[in-house]
Each structure stands twice: as structure tokens, then as C-alpha cells.
Amino acid sequence: MGGTLARRTDTVISAINMRICVVAACLLMASQATGYTMDDLCQQWSGYGYIGNPSNCHAWGYCKNQEVVAWGTCPNGLVFNAQAGSCDYANTTVCSTSAVETCSNVKSPMYVANPLNCTEYAYCDGTGQISYGDCGTGGVYSASSTKCIWGPACPQDTICRFMLSNIFVGDPNQCGNYINCVNGYGTSEKCSSTANPYYNKATGNCQSTNPCTGEDSNSGNSDQFTVGQTNATACDEEAFKAADPLTVNGESVDYRYVSDGVTCYGYYYCAAVNATGYWNQCPTGTQFNAGKCVSPASFVCTHNRCGNVNNPFMADEGCKNYTICSSGITGSCPTNAPYYDEVNNICTTKIPDYAICNSTAST
Ligand SMILES: *[C@@H]1O[C@H](CO)[C@@H](O)[C@H](O)[C@H]1NC(C)=O
Ligand SMILES: *[C@@H]1O[C@H](CO)[C@@H](O)[C@H](O)[C@H]1NC(C)=O
Ligand SMILES: *[C@@H]1O[C@H](CO)[C@@H](O)[C@H](O)[C@H]1NC(C)=O
Ligand SMILES: *[C@@H]1O[C@H](CO)[C@@H](O)[C@H](O)[C@H]1NC(C)=O
Ligand SMILES: *[C@@H]1O[C@H](CO)[C@@H](O)[C@H](O)[C@H]1NC(C)=O
Ligand SMILES: *[C@@H]1O[C@H](CO)[C@@H](O)[C@H](O)[C@H]1NC(C)=O
Q1: What is the pLDDT of residues 215-231, one digit of tens each?
Q2: Is the Cβ atom of 354 under 6 angstroms away from ligand 6?
Q3: Domain spans in the chain, listed from the N-terminal domain onward
Q4: 143 C-alpha vs ligand 2 centroid, how far in Å?
């Protein structure tokens, strides 16, 4: 890619009206992706900048403070080059989501990974035609070496595929590890310092304490909803009025996010009063409150508080007792440290300053 193209595409991106979205609005957009969502990507990155949209090779997002704060699509059929963070010509850029699309556009012969099946690879003949090769049982295609190698993991299946080259990000599959993304590839690594063995994805640094409590896997999810599930009555007038209005670009907009009323982490997207509601869920480790996905400790959810978190225990209101998430059984801290601090996962002498501990509804 030449300097002229880079300059040109930078202009293209800055010319697009950047829409600032509230957390829930971003989540909704991201939910349309398959595999990793744009939220998943931004959550792992302490820096800021463009990322690719894992569901559409023409689309991009912008991460800041570990959230998707803007998104858009490249103009004129340009393909988003996530490693460069710019929109580039389709005839020279691999479409990260479709080998068919890559081959229909590129003008010179090349091998490309099939993002839908790592046992296969695709060959673009440079005239728009695609053909497939087979790595055989147990084999996977490695696009970086253009060779079939032995699995089990697909080398292309990393969040680096959608992220800038030469950045460090957290490993979504192994909290506390980091990945150095280089040209769309990266492997999970541990912090080398014995004094600071844990990678903190929020700061981008290795630290002494484990920052991973309460994230990175689910427990207590009911499975009664699926993302995108519709509900004809979720957006009725009462629900709509009760939900916080949203401000986008400084203007109040006419859509709302409404709790599903059943889980602590699920909500419906409502485009208008009486519109069909679409269900979605907060990122793991967070729960839904007043239009946003927030720390479970910051509000008092009266449904199963173990939903969508990775904590083995969650505080009951008042923080004198806790629920053992795996069984639902209630436990209590010893009398010499009677309060359960669910954020740090310890029993303490002083009542933690979380909304859930302030609540006295059940003691
Ligand atoms: C790619 O497409 C652009 C715009 O259509 C064109 O200017 C450029 O010459 C093409 N490059 C190749 C290698 O065909
Ligand atoms: C992936 O590709 C291989 C080789 O072409 C094929 O045998 C296999 O059935 C494919 N798997 C899926 C899930 O399509
Ligand atoms: C739709 O949502 C409303 C409000 O959350 C709820 O009372 C109702 O049971 C839901 N209906 C279905 C079919 O899930
Ligand atoms: C929403 O539906 C209710 C019941 O069908 C109806 O009374 C009300 O006028 C509707 N509101 C709007 C804004 O369409
Ligand atoms: C909850 O904690 C209180 C002490 O604060 C204790 O008396 C009670 O037995 C606990 N409840 C359960 C179900 O363990
Ligand atoms: C807890 O309650 C006290 C007194 O009502 C209040 O000052 C404090 O801000 C509350 N803390 C939280 C986290 O809600």
C-alpha cells in the first residue's frame, strides 16, 4: 500500500460522521457479528483507534476506554484493512470475512484462508475465480506461512485479525494473558515478570494482582433468551416511559433499552413505543441498569445476580450473606470479617461501599 492510498483513505474515515454511542447502543450493533463482536475486541484493548467489524469486511468500529464509541462502513466498496486501520481498495485487500469476496476482486493470484472453514484454503486465480484446497483431517491452514499445519487451533482465529498491527491486547480466552498483534496474528503470552505476572487489559500493563475476577465466562445464565429474540409487548408505553431516553450526538433520540424484567443482564431494544423489542445481553461481567451495562455491584438487581458473571459467589443485598453461584445456596462470612466484598471476592471487616451492600431490603 503506497503513501498516496493511505493518505486518501485516512481522509475518507475522518470525513465520516462519527457517532458517539451509549454503551447499550454499541452493544446492539456488535451483536450482529458472528464469533467475536466489536465489544469483545474493544474490551481487550487499553488503547484507542479503529478495529475491523468481524461480521463485515467493509465495516469498522472505533475503540476508546474499552468500548465501541463509533462505527461506520468504508465508502465506494472499499475494504477495511484492520491492520492498517484504513479503508483500502478491494482489488488489493483481503476481505477478512469472505474468501469468495476476496477472490472476486483481487487482480493477482493468491492463497487466502477461508474464514468459514480452517481445514480448507482458497486459491484466487486473479481473474475473479476461486477454488479450494483441503488440508486433510487434523490439518489447518496457516495464512501467514501459506501452508497446511497441524491443528487443533486455527492460526487465523485471533482477535488480531480485526485489530491494528503492533499493539498489545488482552487474550479473550485467557484473562491475565496478553497477545501482541502483528499483521493480523498473535499468540497468547504470559507476563514474564514473576513480581507482576498478570496482564491488565484495561491498563495494558503487567501487574501483581489478578484483575480477572468476575469476568470471562458465564455462570447463572438462564439460556431462556437468545440474542435477537423478539418480543411484541416489551416496548409498550409503560416500559418505554420507564426507560431512560438516549442522547446521541447531543440530540435525544427516540429509542430506548428496556430491562427484560427476568434476568439481571438482558434487555430489549425498542425503536419506538409499541415497536417489536429485540433482546440482547450485556458483556460478560456486567449487568443491565438504567440503559447501561454496568458492574453488578453498582446497583441492586433483584433477579439472579449470578447471571452473566464469572464470580463463584455473589453478594446478597446488604453483603452480609452471599449466594454460591454453582448451587444457589446461601453462605455467610465469618463473624470476625462479616461482609462479603464480591468485587475482590473476600470477606472483610468493613462494609464495602457498593450499592448492593447499602441495600437493606433483605438482611
Ligand atoms: C484497484 O482499483 C482502483 C480503483 O478502482 C484502481 O485505481 C487501481 O488501479 C486498481 N488496482 C489494481 C492493481 O488493479
Ligand atoms: C471444511 O472443509 C473440509 C475440506 O474441504 C471439508 O471436508 C469439511 O466438511 C468442511 N467443514 C465444514 C464444517 O464445512
Ligand atoms: C415480553 O416482554 C414483557 C416485558 O418484559 C414480558 O412481560 C413478557 O412476558 C414477554 N413475552 C414473552 C413472550 O417473552
Ligand atoms: C401503543 O399500544 C397501545 C395498546 O395497543 C395503544 O393504546 C397506544 O395508543 C399505542 N401507543 C402508540 C404511541 O402507538
Ligand atoms: C444471612 O445472614 C444472617 C446474619 O446476618 C444470618 O443470621 C442468616 O442465617 C443468613 N441467612 C442464611 C440463609 O444463611
Ligand atoms: C451508601 O449509602 C450512603 C448513605 O446512605 C451513601 O452516602 C453512599 O454514597 C452509598 N454508597 C453507594 C455506593 O451507593
Answers
A1: 443 445 667 888 778 89
A2: yes
A3: 1-216, 230-298, 313-362
A4: 17
Q: Does domain 230-298 have CATH number 2.40.10?
A: no
Q: Identify the residue whose C-alpha is closest to ligand 3 atom 7.
A: 234
CA of 158 to the centre of ligand 6 (A): 42
- Strands annotated E in 151-255: 167-170, 178-181, 188-189, 198-200, 205-207, 230-231, 246-248, 251-253
Q: Which ligand sits nearest to residue 354's alpha carbon?
A: 6
| pTM confidence score | 0.49
Question: Helix, strand, or coil here: 360?
Answer: coil
Tell me whether residue 206 is exposed, middle or buried, using C-beta atoms within 10 angstroms of its C-beta: 0 to 12, 13 to 18, 19 or more.
Answer: middle
CB-ligand 3 contact for 261 (6 Å cutoff) = yes
CA distances from 180 to 126, 155, 228 (A): 32, 14, 33
Residue 4 has pLDDT above 60, yes or no: no
Pocket test residue of 317, 322, 324, 332 for ligand 5, highest count of atoms within 8 A of CB: 332
Give me the phi and psi of 219, to 5 degrees please.
Answer: -145, 150
82 close to 97: Cβ distance less than 8 angstroms: no
